[in-house]
Automatic annotation (TrEMBL):
Protein name, per record: PLD phosphodiesterase domain-containing protein
Residues in PLD phosphodiesterase domain copies: 195-222
Source organism per UniProt: marine sediment metagenome
PROSITE patterns per the UniProt record, alphabetical: PLD
InterPro entries per the UniProt record, alphabetical: PLipase_D/transphosphatidylase
UniProt GO molecular function: catalytic activity
Length: 279
């Protein structure tokens, strides 16, 4: 089963139409169709955005098998694509830090395949919050233990796979180094910076007119249907909205402000979105 057999509920408000997407079986196809409908631009921010995610709508499946194919198709059409992808602490959350950089590199590869005219801007978004010096000193023994475990894992890999993994772990470049035999070791130094928070938003704005927003990241792990066919510990249920109306333009302004704040462009004032009243 790839899509719900029940049409998603649509709520009409003074700010436009809101479509309630109860599961990923409704949400993922809706996002695919929205991207296919884009004429000018897509502005988005996700915590996880995996280009290897399978496509589900018939329209997108006619193009390819996964989001990598859909991105190449979209870039070739001349649609600009601006994505901030959450980054994570490279020590405590090294696996998700690595996933972020794997996804970024796949999107850059899609842009290269699309050709020199592709208008693609993707960036990692590390939350600016940092743990202070005194807590870092107290946590240093635990952090050293984490780094030793990361080194141990890296050294179980074949050399070529280890080099590939390190390319996707740029946040560890100051903490790890190479031994003479090619294995990975800890560098000597003081407590590294620790990043305790991550941006936790999942939204995309298409042409300033459609807003896809909610709790679902984009990967196969998040896919679920109304029948919840997976085992309980493998089921992920969250809700998305597809909004058509002024809220989309407001969300695009918000995303631009967040991007500027993450890029360090001065004292950026983030516009808070007002709740939409039900008519």
């Amino acid at each position: 089963m790839t899509e719900s057999s029940t049409a998603p509920e649509t709520i009409t408000t003074s700010s436009g139409e809101i479509q309630l997407l109860m599961t990923a079986s409704e949400a993922f196809p809706a996002l695919e169709r929205a991207v296919l409908s884009a004429q000018d631009r897509i502005v988005a921010s996700f915590r996880i955005f995996d280009p290897a995610t399978k496509l589900h709508s018939p329209e997108a499946r006619a193009i390819g098998d996964d989001w990598f194919d859909l991105l190449v198709h979209t870039f070739k059409r001349g649609v600009s694509f601006d994505l901030m992808l959450s980054d994570f602490d490279p020590i405590i959350s090294y696996d998700t830090h690595m996933l972020t950089w794997q996804s970024l590199r796949q999107i850059w590869s899609a842009a290269e395949l699309a050709g020199p005219d592709a208008k693609v801007a993707v960036r990692p978004g590390m939350h600016p919050a940092r743990i202070g010096l005194l807590p870092r000193l107290g946590l240093w023994p635990s952090v050293r233990k984490e780094l030793r475990e990361i080194c141990g894992w890296l050294n179980t890999l074949e050399p070529s796979h280890r080099r590939s993994a390190l390319r996707h772990l740029p946040g560890l470049c100051t903490c790890l180094g190479d031994c003479d035999d090619g294995s990975t070791k800890m560098r000597f130094g003081g407590p590294p910076f620790l990043f305790p928070a991550s941006h936790h938003q999942k939204l995309a704005v298409i042409d300033g007119e459609q807003l896809y927003i909610g709790g679902l990241d984009l990967n196969d792990r998040r896919y679920d249907t109304l029948t919840h066919e997976r085992a309980a510990d493998e089921t992920w249920h969250d809700v998305q909205l597809l909004v058509r109306g002024p809220a989309a333009a407001a969300a695009e302004t918000y995303l631009t402000q967040v991007r500027d704040a993450v890029d360090g462009k001065g004292n950026v004032q983030i516009q808070v979105l007002e709740p939409v009243p039900r008519s």
